[in-house]
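For consistency, the fold was encoded as C-alpha cells, which produced the following:
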Amino acid sequence: MGSKILKQKKAAEILEEAKQLKNKLASTKTIVQFSEHVGPDGRLNGSVTAKEIADQLAKQFNLTVDKRKLQLPQPIKTIGPKCKEKTKPKIASMLKTAIK
C-alpha cells in the first residue's frame, strides 16, 4: 500500500511541474527569439528544429524542455509559426517563436 501512495504522490508532483511549465510557456513574455537569415519572400535559408527551440528555451528562459516533447509537424522554415509543447497527455501549450 505504501508504494501505491508514493506513486500517486510522485504523479501529482510531476503533474504540478507540468502545469507550471505550461503556464511559463503560455506567458506573453515567453517568446523564443532566433536570429536567422531570411530571404525576401519570408523563408529561412535553413530551418529551426525542435532541438534548437529546446536549446533556446534553456538559454533565454532557463526552462528545460525535452526536444521530443515539442511537436513540430516539420522544421520551421518561415517567419512566425508556433509549435506545440506537450508535457503530459492532458497538458499542452502553444509556444511562440520570433525569427529575425
Observations:
- Helices lie at 2-26, 50-61.
- The chain is about 35% helix and 30% strand.
